[in-house]
Amino acid sequence: MANGRRSPTIPRFRSEAEEARFWDTHDSTEFLGAFKPAKLTFPKRKPKVLVSVRLGKSEVALTRQIAARKGLGFGSLLRMWL
Fold first, then answer.
1. Which of 4, 16, 68, 79 has a CA-to-CA distance to 33 between 20 and 30 Å?
2. Most confident of 19-23, 42-46, 48-52
């Protein structure tokens, strides 16, 4: 640490509830030395191709309503359906 002190160690917990209580009352930045960096890999996405589909006004309106109810974007919902 910058001030010469070691990071405190994270205790062992008997349950997730006990761990949750601990993190609710402690600042995780006090334990930075106890964490290991995560190695993440993300799959490469295939490039998307633009496809034009003609829909009637009523179909577009209904699809937008459904997307809004599901908390999705219009295009995202259409891609899920396709």
1. 16
2. 19-23
